[in-house]
Specification:
This protein has 348 residues and is mostly beta strands. It has strands spanning 3-10, 19-25, 30-37, 42-47, 53-58, 62-63, 66-67, 70-76, 82-89, 95-100, 106-111, 116-123, 126-127, 132-135, 151-156, 162-167, 172-177, 190-193, 200-205, 211-216, 221-228, 231-239, 250-256, 262-268, 272-279, 282-290, 296-301, 307-312, 317-323, 330-338, 342-347. The chain has one domain: YVTN repeat-like/Quinoprotein amine dehydrogenase (Methylamine Dehydrogenase, Chain H, 7 Propeller). The protein is globular. The chain starts with a strand and ends with a strand.
Length: 348
């Protein structure tokens, strides 16, 4: 049987919590937990470009008695086992996303509750102390959700030249030039505004790097842009929900399927995945499928494109959907794996 390794981020800690390491059979769609690494609330995971290090956003409000959460740095052994190198404070509350520079020398974290982004330098994979902190200002139209900036993602653009930062609190996507010496030039960001109250959450790029797609958490739309050298040009906006749905929903993650043509978004509330045929700036709804769990956050297609593993935060499980090889449409399987509030999954 063909098996691949997965790392799963959760809202948990302790001997049987933190980062879960698993083996997945990508031909059968099954998952087997191997072990755990004790990091508190590792809500997002990222591997270094060479695969030798894993970084986890430790989503807490306090770290070692100081304001803010942390990022954990782990060494990855040849067999995939993790060993903790160090943890470093982000100086911002509730870091919820981590990304690594193309050269592996810097790690970027999004601090949701603080409305800041943190830039760590690395040394032999470990995080250096005294990071750079990028501070946003302002507020949005929604007094409950946008009373201040809320940075939700720090994503390196596919050309390796910019850091795209989605700020849910001020309805903006900001692109900062990367810097080989300090990681980021925080004084020359390019702002792109989204509609008032939409709350841009995550950004995904087309495989050719020419288009960007921003999922809005409260607006429940995908906004398509042309992308070129740090500039975003708006093209279209497409809803992620059925036209007749009038219940509560907030969107979460956005990714391309391995075919590079199907764009997928997770709906929390409707508890579904929305699949779109992506043709540049035009999105056509292909399917909306229930995930069989509650509050789907991140999800991951197996590299062969045969299955999708969905992290359901509030039902505390991972469910599995099978992809049709002809149409790409998804069908929920009976597989379900109980884990403490899983929220992210990446492949080694």
């Amino acid at each position: 049987m063909a098996k691949i390794m997965a790392y799963i981020g959760t809202y948990s800690k302790g001997e049987h919590g933190g980062i879960f390491r698993a083996l997945v059979d990508d031909e059968a769609g099954t998952l087997e937990i191997i072990d755990t690494t004790d990091v508190e609330n590792p809500s997002h995971l990222a591997l270094s470009p060479d695969g030798k290090f894993l970084y986890a956003a430790s989503e807490t409000g306090e770290f070692r008695g100081r304001n803010g959460g942390a990022v954990a740095a782990c060494a990855v052994a040849p067999d995939g086992a993790l060993s903790l190198l160090n943890l470093a404070g982000t100086q911002g509350k509730h870091p919820c996303y981590a990304a690594v520079s193309p050269d592996g020398k810097f790690v970027y974290a999004a601090n949701y509750s603080e409305g800041t982004a943190t830039v760590f330098a690395t040394e032999n994979g470990a995080l250096k102390e005294d990071p750079m902190v990028v501070v946003h200002q302002g507020k949005g139209a929604n007094p409950k959700r946008q009373e201040k900036p809320h940075v939700h993602i720090t994503r390196v653009t596919p050309d390796g030249k910019y850091l795209a930062v989605c700020d849910l609190g001020i309805d903006a996507v900001v692109l900062y030039p990367l810097c080989a010496a300090c990681g980021l030039n925080k004084n020359t960001g390019s702002f792109v505004r989204t509609p008032d109250g939409d709350g841009p959450r995550h950004i995904e790029f087309s495989p050719d790097g020419k288009f960007a797609y921003v999922v809005t958490e409260m607006g429940c739309t995908v906004r398509a842009y042309a992308y070129e050298d740090g500039r975003l040009t708006f093209l279209s906006a497409t809803p992620t929900l059925p036209a007749d749905f009038d219940g509560f929903n907030i969107d979460a993650a956005i990714h391309f399927a391995p075919d590079g043509k199907t764009l997928v978004v997770s709906n929390r509330g409707h508890d579904s995945l929305a699949l779109f045929d992506a043709d540049g700036g035009t999105l056509t709804l292909k399917q909306i499928v229930k995930v069989g769990g509650k509050t789907p956050r991140e999800f991951a297609y197996t590299p062969n494109g045969k299955f999708v593993f969905v992290c359901n935060q509030d039902s505390a499980d991972i469910t599995v959907l099978r992809a049709c090889p002809e149409t790409g449409e998804l069908t929920l399987t009976d597989a379900k794996y109980d884990l403490p509030k899983p929220v992210s999954l990446i492949w080694r």
